[in-house]
Amino acid sequence: MELLRGVLAGELSLALVTAPPEDAQITAVPFARAHLYAALPEDHPAVRKDRLLLHDLRRDQWILFARQVQQMIYDAILDTARLGAIVPKDAHETFTAHQAVYLVSEHAGVAIFAEPPSIDCSVRGVAIRPLADKSLCFDTSLIMRADQGSRAVNEFGRAFLKKYAPQRLPPRQMDLPLPA
Sign of dihedral through CA atoms 41, 44, 47, 52? Predict the structure, then answer.
């Protein structure tokens, strides 16, 4: 939300934001899909799985980013839980993935966050696993003010998207019958 506020205030020209809210004042161009991750103790029963479901964490206390940090993601986690008849135990709220991982290392629960697993997880006894719930996958977008008039900013945005947006596959050609 701080990045969004910075773009809206004109303090930032561009920002990379996961799950930006719909706002007529910004232009958001998705360029990647972001999955959520869970940090859990290495002795957790689900640690043997490569990909987890929220259901695998139903008996744990959850550590989530505070709602004011990532409102859409916070709400999506709780909505997915509600739809799956999961009642989270007392959820701790944090402001960074590092805080969340530290709390997991102190056995305060399992953390759910949107940052990639490149955060420093050398904390002893903590494992990171991606969540496979389809409702917990979000677009990461390049955002800028809708009224952005700077040619340099627009050109940089185009160049960034050209380089980092997933390569589009050519349309699939229909199989044509072979002559007999």
Answer: negative
